[in-house]
Amino acid sequence: MEMQKPSQHLRASILSSIKAGEYRRARRYVAISVVTLLTSAVGLIFAIRYLFEAFYASEFYSYATLIFSDPDVALSFWNYVALSLAESLPVVAVLAALTSVLVVLASLYVMSKNIKMALTPSFGI
After folding, report:
1. Is residue 62 part of a domain?
2. What is the mean pLDDT of residues 90-108?
3. Which of 3, 37, 75, 80 has the largest CB neighbor count within 10 A?
4. With 80 as the cut, is the pLDDT of residue 28 above it?
């Protein structure tokens, strides 16, 4: 059985429809990425605000300033100071802020990857 070569017009038509589909998909992903980036940026602002409020509400700030205000006492009782810092650390607020940062970075990565795909042609027709 012999393979027949498709005509140049058919080949160009198939490749251009594939390219148009890729561009459509990339534009859709860019739009979704922009919405995700804006939403996660707003979430990051609230998470950082919550983090600062949690730091000031906990005693972490007081223990941390003790290290800089009186380092001799902090060094002599370093194990108690370290345990007090670890106990008063607002873990939930830190995790929320880190998660928000990771979501912002991931949406930036996806958006940059899709913008690159939308602007770079796949086939040289």
Report:
1. yes
2. 92
3. 37
4. yes
Residue 22 lies in a domain: yes
Short-list 85, 95, 106, CA closest to 40: 106
Asked if the structure places residue 2 within a domain, the reply is no
Cα–Cα distance for residue pair 124/18, rounded to 1 Å: 12
Say if residues 64 and 85 touch (Cβ distance below 8 Å).
Answer: yes
Structural domain contains residue 124:
no
**What letter would DSSP give residue 122?**
S
Which residue segment(s) compose the domain that 34 sits in? 8-119
124: pLDDT strictly greater than 60: no
Of the candidates 84, 87, 90, 51, the residue with the CA atom closest to the CA atom of residue 66: 84
Number of structural domains (the chain) is 1
Residue 97 pLDDT exceeds 60: yes
Handedness of CA 21, 24, 26, 32 (dihedral sign): negative
Averaged pLDDT score across all residues of the chain = 85
Cα separations in angstroms, 12 against 86, 93, 120, 123: 65, 55, 18, 10
For residue 41, the model assigns a pLDDT of 92
Q: Which two tokens stand for residue 70?
A: 């009186």
